[in-house]
Design a protein that fits this description.
The chain has 231 residues and is an alpha/beta fold. It has a single domain, classed as Class I glutamine amidotransferase (GATase) domain (Rossmann fold, 3-Layer(aba) Sandwich), CATH 3.40.50.880. Helix content is 29%, strand content 27%.
């Protein structure tokens, strides 16, 4: 099995995802868009993971490779590949499939709970009824046509969605580790302007380590779900 991930900035890597992929026997490759926007052939991977980044999907004039990236994502989905998008990655999936991405009413940064939504569809991935997860986003998206909404939060209605059997977008970061959270703090500290849904650097850094174990366990379950979806 082969996994390919798209990385938009040096400080937003795969977090806990790579450990799961290694254990599951995946060969891993990467496109580092901040270095060179060269994409593999669709036949060269089974699972595509799209990481986060501080840019907007609408910043095509600043980052011209976004046009090519969105077409690549659409092609992968149309080809039936398993696709996981995280934060910007979820927004890119939505936009690639024709949905609007726009500023959320508030920024959501730090540790806040998301609530699972029961769509009545027994085949979609199921989140816990409520779980505190790590957020760092200021934009949101409309759901792609045919997508099932999987989770919400007080600050943002569209927190997770599933498209078909093997495409999932997450607005939040359940791949986060203490190391990746620190990288976000160090590189995006200017985002930490106190508000109702923006925690302080101290609060983010002081979270109980058990929170990371809980979200990483959920990421493992989600990756196993996508792995089975391709079987």
């Amino acid at each position: 099995m082969r996994a390919h991930y798209l990385q938009h900035v040096p400080f937003e890597g795969t977090g806990s995802i790579e450990k799961w992929l290694d254990a599951a026997g995946y060969a891993i490759s990467c496109t580092r868009l901040f270095e060179s926007p060269i994409f593999p052939g669709i036949e060269e991977f089974d699972l595509l993971v799209i990481m986060g980044g501080p840019m907007s999907v609408n910043d095509e004039s600043l980052f011209p490779w976004l046009v090519q990236e969105k077409q690549f994502i659409q092609n992968a989905i149309r080809a039936g590949k398993r696709v996981l998008g995280i934060c910007l990655g979820a927004q890119l999936i939505a936009n690639a499939m024709g949905s609007r991405v726009y500023p959320n009413g508030v920024k959501e940064i730090g540790w806040f709970p998301v609530q699972a939504l029961d769509s009545g569809n027994v085949s979609v991935f199921r989140f816990p009824p409520s779980l505190k997860v790590f957020h760092w986003h200021g934009e949101t998206f409309e759901l792609p046509s045919g997508a099932v909404r999987l989770a919400r939060s007080e600050a943002c209605e569209n927190q997770a969605f599933q498209l078909g059997t093997s495409v999932i977008g997450l607005q939040f970061h359940i791949e986060a580790t203490p190391e990746t959270a620190l990288e976000l703090i160090l590189n995006c500290r200017s985002d930490l302007q106190p508000s109702e849904y923006v925690q302080s650097e101290e609060d983010i850094r002081d979270i109980d380590p058990g929170n990371y174990r809980a979200i990483n366990s959920l990421m493992d379950e989600l990756l196993a779900y996508l792995h089975r979806a391709g079987g």
